[in-house]
Design goal:
The protein is about 40% helix and about 15% strand. It has 15 helices and ten strands.
């Protein structure tokens, strides 16, 4: 079984290159009892969720087809990006949300990719092809941030971001903290609700201050939303669609809405780390992650929403998954370079004016 190295544990180790698959030498080489090892070793930095799925459907098959031993380092976005910054890791490929990937790009931490080596990019949604520029990696999954709510606790049908300011959500609302992935998206939504076609920071924070009195908690982790929702401590709030299945399990008649002003694209990217000695193999892996087969399996397992346009899902398979060009290409996309530039100022202002 492949070893998954936690971000915190790995920092304390003298070497971050651990034994990979845990498979025998025979399995690693495709041989039959030889003393050799895998032809290549590919170090991948990822979150570590859905471990069994990724081992069986993504990493394992790639190892066999490419005669490679995959080593995994796991942790949250910040932990793993910090290791790259500090030079304490030999990672080749890194999965990151677009917010953190933009930081890596700004700091020169990633290689420029050769798109000719990743032909499956041609089969993915336009929004996912170059979310942070042509030189850098694609989004391998695009989810959406919308509104989930319990219709038994809300006295109206929710259709708009502006509905969060309705008395129906009085004292029973949650919204993401500014430091959460979805935090900047809510700031942008508040600007739209205030009537602005282009982003207006003052209007956004004024609008959010109006809302703050109804917020039970500013959540930083989705598990907090799920727990409050299941206990009926909240009636709803903004959440990523990929987690709606957890809300539905707790409250069967829960609803998820893509607001009329547009839901927000939540993109996870995959990049090659600067200085990788396995750049071509890393690009082959990115191509593998974007393939129709891998994307379809991920979607049907409800692990990741697909970006490959050739993936076809039934209505049941698509439930809780961000799926289809009519959905994906309509999503609002934040300028992550701008967001990163404003992050500190927004956090300071949020702490002063909103989260009091």
């Amino acid at each position: 079984m492949k070893k998954w190295v936690s971000g915190l544990a790995a920092v304390a180790m003298t070497s971050v290159l651990l034994a990979g698959c845990g498979s025998s030498t025979d399995d690693a080489t495709g041989g039959s009892g030889s003393e050799g090892t895998a032809a290549n070793k590919l170090v991948i930095s990822t979150w570590g969720f859905s471990e069994d799925f990724f081992n069986e459907e993504v990493f394992g098959p790639f190892e066999k087809e490419h005669n490679v031993d995959i080593v995994l380092e796991v942790g949250n976005n910040a932990e793993r990006l910090n290791k790259i910054r500090q030079g304490t890791s030999n990672v080749d490929v890194i999965y990151l949300s677009d917010y953190y990937a933009q930081q890596g790009i700004d700091e020169g931490l990633f290689e420029k990719i050769d798109r000719s080596k990743i032909p499956n990019i041609n089969d993915i949604y336009d929004i996912a092809k170059a979310p942070l520029g042509e030189d850098y990696g694609p989004a391998y999954t695009v989810g959406q941030l919308g509104i989930a709510y319990n219709p038994d606790l809300v006295s109206k049908e929710v259709t708009s971001w502006s509905d969060l300011w309705d008395p129906a959500f009085e004292n029973n609302l949650t919204i993401p903290n500014i430091t959460a992935t979805a935090g900047p998206m809510v700031v942008d939504a508040a600007s739209r609700v205030a009537g602005n076609d282009t982003f207006n920071e003052d209007a956004a924070f004024t609008k959010l201050k109006e809302l703050s009195g109804n917020v039970v908690k500013f959540y930083s982790q989705t598990s907090e939303f799920v727990n409050m929702f299941s206990q009926e401590e909240i009636a709803g709030g903004p959440i990523m669609e990929m987690y709606f299945k957890d809300l539905k399990a707790a409250v069967p008649n829960a609803k998820f809405v893509a607001p009329s002003e547009g839901a927000y694209a939540v993109m996870n990217t995959i990049n090659v780390v600067k200085g990788s000695k396995n750049k071509e193999l890393a690009e082959e892996f990115i191509n593998w992650q974007l393939s129709q087969d891998v994307q379809a399996k991920s979607a049907k397992a409800k692990v990741d929403s697909p970006v490959n346009t050739k993936v076809e899902l039934t209505a049941e398979e698509a439930e809780g998954v961000t799926y289809g060009a009519d959905v994906v290409e309509k999503l609002n996309k934040l300028d992550m370079e701008f967001v990163n530039q404003q992050a500190k100022a927004w956090t300071d202002r949020w702490n002063r004016e909103i989260a009091q």
